[in-house]
Amino acid sequence: MNMTQQTSEAVRPHDWPGLADPVHDSQRLFRQLLGAMSEPGTLTELVLPELPTGAAISPAAWGALLALCDLDTRVWVDQGLARANLAAALAFHTGARLTDDPAQADFALVTPDTLSREDGFALGSDAWPDRSTTLIVMVEALAQGDDWWLSGPGVPGERGLALGNAERALPLMRVLAANRAHFPRGLDAFISSEMRLTAIARSTRLAGPGLAATDDAEHQEETA
Amino acid sequence: MNTAIDSGYNFAYLDEQTKRMIRRALLKAVAIPGYQVPFGGREMPMPYGWGTGGMQLTASVLGADDTLKVIDQGADDTTNAVSIRAFFERVAGVETTTATAQASVIQTRHRIPEKTLRADQILIFQVPIPEPLRFIEPSEEETRVMHALEEYGVMHVKLYEDIAHHGHIATTYAYPVKVDGRYVMDPSPIPKFDNPKLHMSEALMLFGAGREKRLYAIPPHTRVESLDFEDHPFEIQAWDEPCAICGATDSYLDEVIIDDQGARMFVCSDTDYCNSRSEEKA
């Protein structure tokens, strides 16, 4: 078959790039993910080969999946992102299982819009807050900016982010801002666009247009 | 990079699936500062109590281009530190160093280096008993509920009993802290002298308990308060004399008995700090 004439359905699982050096590439990617989660709002570039034509997720999101998923993890995928045979590729490269139940998901591939429709992701419990879903979010753009302001652990003072159109990012930011209300339960998020990635932890305080003002006055004082 | 790696093992000893399991747990730990995340601890080629928790974290974090430093009570040259350093030289082939400033990953038993850590460094603590409430409440089920409900009053009762017995807070190591205003955490048996270094640190700090199979973290720039009372504020140790070798007045000093007449000297516990100060003066 001629590669260039493939429809997205004809993309084979091994057309998706794996890690050339699984041991050291996954270590490198993990350290970037760890750095991102430790310092929410900082940007990092995950270097990966090009994804097959028709893929609806970012190379950075694919990198996070390759680094973190294996047969012990369940992944929930928004139908809009499950293009170019993503499910088969994920199973082929990592052994991860897909789930239709968001409450069962260790990782969820979503867009901000997904979160206005789907709210069943696992938050963990007060006793076991680690039993939660980690979101891997596709956004249209990702840069330092002044739309969304992050503070809290990992952030000296404040850090500003722009995720493209603020209106379209709002469902995501509402969900992440709500983390403070039910901490330690909550959703952690890796947010990606192309090769670029940042993270917002559940411990992060968020401020921005359309978000309720934070009541965490004690912390504001401390970092001011 | 040293290429003379023991090829019988995967890079850094642990298999990849174990590393991924620990890595996923580490991401949760960082996102919930001070919360103890359970992980599937593996048997390491050394007994519990020698740093198996710290080693599993180091093995999961370490890359071929990292430079590793290992300290035991501040010293680079004690059995535990030498063995763990040699272990990772053998199974990962990484560069090792004793210089704090040159290390990208530092595994430590019971000290935080005197030299202020940077943003590009990761400090990994070996933890014997991760649960700060354990000596008050032996049941794991109970302490888990206490953490869930933020029921920490009993911790202050323990410190108060110190004051009632001794007139001051007599806890000198493993001094409990509160992380980001939420979780009470055992900082591992570091002297309380080191507690202020946990607060708003530039470096990421990871804690691994091998026997108890728990790991936890303090991200950089995170509030870490040592528990205390308004009328008995938290204080760190102080010495009347400087380090007998390098003259430092700002470092944690070990008391060393030097003869059978009871004569003693006080020297820095951080050997790299002491050596580099002595070299500067020479």
TrEMBL record, chain B:
Record-level Gene Ontology MF annotations: 4 iron, 4 sulfur cluster binding; alpha-D-ribose 1-methylphosphonate 5-phosphate C-P-lyase activity; metal ion binding
Keyword Ubl conjugation listed: no
Keywords: 4Fe-4S, Iron, Iron-sulfur, Lyase, Metal-binding, S-adenosyl-L-methionine
Signal peptide boundaries: none
Catalytic activity, EC: 4.7.1.1
Pfam families: PhnJ (PF06007)
GO biological process, one term: organic phosphonate catabolic process
Top-level enzyme category: lyase
Catalysed reaction equations from the record: alpha-D-ribose 1-methylphosphonate 5-phosphate + AH2 + S-adenosyl-L-methionine = alpha-D-ribose 1,2-cyclic phosphate 5-phosphate + methane + 5'-deoxyadenosine + L-methionine + A + H(+)
Physiological role: Catalyzes the breakage of the C-P bond in alpha-D-ribose 1-methylphosphonate 5-phosphate (PRPn) forming alpha-D-ribose.
Family statement drawn from the similarity comment of this UniProt entry: Belongs to the PhnJ family.
Protein name: Alpha-D-ribose 1-methylphosphonate 5-phosphate C-P lyase
